[in-house]
Sequence to fold (403 residues):
Amino acid sequence: MRPLILSIFLLIALNCTSNNDYSVKEFTSPSGENASLPRLFTDNTGTVFLSWVESKGDTSSLFYSSLDNDQWSKPKLIAKSDSWFVNWADFPSVIGKDGKAVAAHWLQKVPGGTYAYNVNIVGSANDWETVLTPHKDNTPTEHGFVSMTPASDTTFLSIWLDGRNTAGSGGHDSHTSDLSSAMTLRSAFINSDLKVEESFLIDASVCDCCGTSVVQTQNGFITAYRNRTENEIRDIYISRYMNGKWEEPASVHDDNWEIAACPVNGPAIDAQGQTVAVAWYTGANDISKVKMAFSYDEGKSFETPVLLDNGNPLGRVDVEFISNDEILVSWMERNMEDRSKASFVAKKITTDGEIQKEFEFSLMESSRKSGFPQISSYKNSIIAAWADVSDQNSSKIKVAILE
Fold:
C-alpha cells in the first residue's frame, strides 16, 4: 500500500468562518474500518503521530501512522489482542521523537474482576515485542489513564493512575471516604531497553478515572490531573518534576467541585518555554464550565482562569500552543436542540488571556462512544482527530486541519 498523498484535491471544506484568515478543512484519515480512540502526538521535528484502535469481533488492534510533509505513512500494526481493556476514556497512545515512533501503551486485562488491568508499554527499539509493566504491585486493580512524553534521547516519562491501594476496598465502584485506599498517581522514567530507571509516587489520593496529561517544560516536566481531598473536592492539580524530584502537588484553581464520584473528565496541559497552559472541565455548584489558566513561571503559580464554554459543555478538553503567544483550547459543547449531538469546538486565546476566535471542527455524537477529540500542532497550525460514530454499525476516524 503506497503512502496516502495529501494534496489540495483531498481537502474537503468542513466549515469556514467569517474570518478569512483561517478555515477548518477535512484531511484524509489513514485509519481503516471500525476505528476509534484516536490519539495525536507531535514530536520535536513537527512529525505528527496518529494512533487508533480497530475492532473486529473481540479482537482489538493498535495502529499508528505518522504525518510529515502532508503525507501519511503506511499504517503500522503495533499489537492486537482479545484480552485488552478497551474503554471510551482510557485509550492507548503512541509517542515519537526525531521523526520516529518511540513507545506505545495499552491496557491488559488481568484476573481479578472487570476493572483489573495493567499498563503495558512497548518500544520501537525492541520492534514493539518486549512488553513492560511499569508498576510491580501485582494487585488485580485498575492501572491506566496513561500519559507519556520523551524525556531525553534514550528515555521517556510515563504517568498513570495506579489503584494498588484500592485492593479490597470495592475497587472501581467504591467511593469510600478513607483516602488510604484511594487511587494514586505514579510515574516512571523508562529507557529505550524498556527498563525502569526511576519510579515515583506523585500523589497518594487522586480522582479514580479522569485522564492525566504531561508536558516537558524549559527546566523539567509538569503533570496535570484531577485531585481528590478528604471532603471529596475534585479540582485540577499539577505537580512539577524539577531537580530530580516531583514537587508537592498544587491546585491550578480552587473550583471547589464537591463530587463523591469520578466525572471522567481530565485536564490538558501544554507549555512553551516557561509559559504553561492548563485547560479543564468543572461542574462546581452544578454548573458545567470549561476553563483554562496560564502560568508564566513554569507552573509555580497560575493566573485567574478564563471561562471558555458557551453554556453547555461536555468537557473532554485539549490544549495546544500554536505560537509563542497563542494557544488553542478545544472541547465538546452539547447541542441543546438535539442532546444526542455535540459540537467539537475550539477557541484561540492569547497568552494575555484575550479570546480571539471561535470555530467548529465538526458536529459529533455526544455519547461516550465518541470518546475524546484530539488536537495537536502541525506546520504552525493545528491538526484535529475524532471518532465518527454516527453509523451504528461502524466507526471511523476523522481528521481535519486548521489552515
